[in-house]
TrEMBL record:
Residues 1-31 form the signal peptide. Keywords: Signal. The keyword Signal applies. Transmembrane segments: none annotated. The keyword Protease does not apply. This is Uncharacterized protein. It holds the Pfam family DUF538. It comes from Capsicum baccatum.
């Protein structure tokens, strides 16, 4: 009788372990292909995240973490605007918005700003808003209809990164930002801390 009871416990434990492992595998597999559907079901366009999402986690409160293979940049709206995605992107999903975002930056001219929140006020408006702390930038919803290709990058200098840079290093940061965003034919010469004339 004791032996039979012990055998039953082993069988139950094995079954529970198998079920747990199976559930974990299902979450990873589902995450690899359905994060875009999760966005859609929350009234958001699927193209807010780029192609190449490996997997993601999402809890009951809407908190999520998305894992990419590597940091990358994606262009939208006739390639005039650009978003940067870190390897791990997180936030809190609710209907029509993503709050407490970490891991996404938006480019304005040659500066990068961390995106704090993304929201759609009304689907009929055809507009989506990106809150970058100082202002909210608006874009066409249709620009994010589908996930975009994402180009691998090594580093992005955001405006928040400049807060800890001293005056001497600040010139080098500006030089890097300018040289990466201007045509090869134009180079700016930094002379004793001041931006000099353009040299063709």
């Amino acid at each position: 009788m004791v032996l039979f009871h012990h055998h039953n416990l082993e069988k139950q434990n094995s079954l529970m372990l198998f079920t747990f492992v199976l559930c974990c595998l299902c979450v990873v597999i589902a995450g690899d292909s359905s994060i875009y559907e999760v966005l859609k079901s929350h009234g958001l366009p699927m193209g807010l995240l780029p192609k190449g999402v490996r997997n993601f986690t999402l809890d009951n409160s809407g908190k999520f973490v998305v894992h990419l293979d590597q940091p990358c940049n994606s262009k939208f709206e006739k390639k005039e605007n650009e978003l940067h995605y870190e390897r791990n992107v997180s936030g809190t999903l609710s209907y029509g918005q993503i709050d407490l975002i970490s891991g996404i930056s938006a480019k304005d001219l040659f500066l990068w700003f961390e995106v704090k929140k993304i929201y759609v006020s009304s689907s009929s408006s055809g507009v989506i808003y990106f809150d970058v702390g100082v202002v909210s930038k608006q874009f066409s919803l249709s620009s994010f209809d589908s996930p975009k290709d994402c180009t691998t990058v090594s580093m992005v200098v955001r405006t928040t990164d400049l807060e800890d840079v001293d005056e001497e290093d600040d010139r080098h940061v500006v030089e890097v930002a300018v040289s990466k965003n201007l045509s090869r034919k134009i180079r700016y010469k930094l002379d004793q801390g001041n931006i000099g004339n353009a040299v063709l």
